[in-house]
Amino acid sequence: MNFVGVCDYALEELEPPDGWRTFASRLRAQRSRTAPLLSRLRPAWLTSAAAAAFAVWWLVLPSGVQPAQASEILAKSSIAQRRAWDTLPGAVVHQTLEITAGPGGKIGWDLWRAPKQARLAERWTGANALRVQIASVCKRSCLDSSDPLSAVAFQRWRDSVVKKSERVDQDKAHGNLTIRTEAESGQLSAASLTIRESDFHPVEQSLKIVSGDGVVDIRIREVSYEVLRMEDVPAGVFETPTVPLLTTSRSQKPVEAQSPASVQDLDVAEARLRQLLHELKIDTSLSP
Question: What CATH class does 67-285 carry?
Answer without folding.
Answer: mainly beta
